[in-house]
Amino acid sequence: RTLWRCQLLVVYSLPLAAYFIYKNRNSLDTKKIFTKETCLEFLAHACLWSYTTTMFVWSSDFTLVSHTGLLGNLSGVCIVTWNLLRKVPVHYLEIYGTIVVVISAIVFMNDSTSTKTNGQTNIFLGDIIGLSSSPTFAIYFIVSARLLKKLPAMVVLEVSFAIQLVLYFVFTISIMDTEKFYSFDPQFGILGWASNTYLMHSLLF
To answer: Where, by residue number, does the polypeptide cross the bilayer (predicted)?
Structure first.
């Protein structure tokens, strides 16, 4: 499903990326764009997002979706904590907000009434996997901020989606049966999103 989504994002984002390149053609500094540093930032951007989303999905296989949603979105806490460790000035409201989030998360995680209704259950493992995506999510935002200083947002996303597509393709083809992969199979095919089962859903949503 992640590979399908990435394919569609590349296609849907391309016209917008082309429009913003044309619109900002006179202000784009190609000397800053076509550099080794920018290429490495794009690669890091794509890898970080790929890892984050993969861990998010994998976590939900073991633990409650609510746990995954909470633990996978603590990037703000990671950024504030890191800035405090580096002794970078942090607004007092950010500190209070971080404390509130951490306390709320602890209380929320101690809820023993919720149960996982399907799939294999290993709450602790799933929580650890979900939590591991938060630091990379935080770094993703930092890299995004650097890239957005050089290029329009849609261009950054389009290039990142294209790199992610290559990464997902290589990973998926290395673990799957190639006969099923190169098909419209609604479960395993690379073009499964275009099957009768998912076509309308894929195009609309």
So the answer is: 6-22, 42-58, 64-85, 92-110, 122-143, 155-176
Helix, strand, coil fractions of the chain, as percent rounded to 5? 75, 0, 25
Spatial contact of 67 and 109, defined as CB atoms under 8 Å apart: yes
Enter the pTM of the model. 0.77
> How far, in Å, CA of 14 to CA of 121, rounded?
40
Domain boundaries defined on the chain: 2-18+36-204
The CA distance from 3 to 88, in Å, is: 39
DSSP code, position 194: G
The tens digit of pLDDT for each residue in 91-136 reads 889 899 999 988 988 888 776 666 655 655 777 888 899 889 999 9
Please state the separation of Cα 35 from the chain's center in Å: 24
Integer Cα distance of 156 and 41 in angstroms:
10
